């Protein structure tokens, strides 16, 4: 009998951490989730209310004098923390790195307001002014690419260079995806499950690795929070922002040097599941073509295509992404 008990005890000891992990709960502002770098907060005003905008401001070693600033803008289903490898790389190369969590994302407040890329760009500009940064290279991934484009159009004097990493918004989703009301989008967000989140994230990569699971566990832990209805509603607002506020028609107005880094296996279309026809779905999100079209539309653009890489090069192929980024920064 004792021989049977010892293996059972050992199994139980190993099961406890797994159970605790699966029951982890994060609130709307991820108070119990630790970023790899210190997080600060800036108060921003919108619709007459004050909200907290979280950000990281990482300096290079003191041996680097007067460092150039690089701003990293996250995607819709992410937060500033997923830039951790890129932050570490850029700081090591002598750059100051500023990484905001946009209002409604990550550790920032989940404000029930009208979301617009113009307003998020203004908040980002206010952050740079607060940090006494007059000029910066602006890097945007996925939704952050739409925001980076809007920022560069609004503040060309601030944007020395623009980097778009597998940006969404390279086509007008209003012409592709059937319209959904805010209430419909909200109800869809309420139906999310950890399995569903993981399955969606798997479409971002050419093959899944355990390290990618961190970016699934964070939103999954929010599903179990009493705050989740608020998180879900804000997510619906920001989905509507992407759908209703295209930037694709304004790429020709960008005047600064630009770099497009495109993982060629990406087929992302925001709201793809709402397109009923499989044949229609396959027509869109064709990043090999979209990357070339966008590079042709931006007057001073360089295109770097990454074979065998999906939607998030800075996570799936960090060495290739960082090489392309650093070469562009040093030009």
UniProtKB/TrEMBL annotation:
Signal peptide span per the entry? 1-20
Question: What top-level branch of life does the organism fall under?
Answer: Bacteria
Keyword tRNA processing found = no
Query: Which is one GO molecular function term here?
Result: monoacylglycerol lipase activity
Q: Which InterPro entries match?
A: AB_hydrolase_1, AB_hydrolase_fold, AB_hydrolase_sf, Epox_hydrolase-like
UniProt keyword terms in alphabetical order: Signal
Quote the SUPFAM superfamilies the UniProt record gives.
alpha/beta-Hydrolases
Listed GO biological process terms: acylglycerol catabolic process
AB hydrolase-1 domain mapped to chain residues: 69-318
What GO CC terms are in its UniProt record?
membrane
Gene3D superfamilies on file: alpha/beta hydrolase (3.40.50.1820)
Asked whether the keyword Nuclease is assigned, the reply is no
Name of the protein: Pimeloyl-ACP methyl ester carboxylesterase
Source organism:
Pontibacter indicus
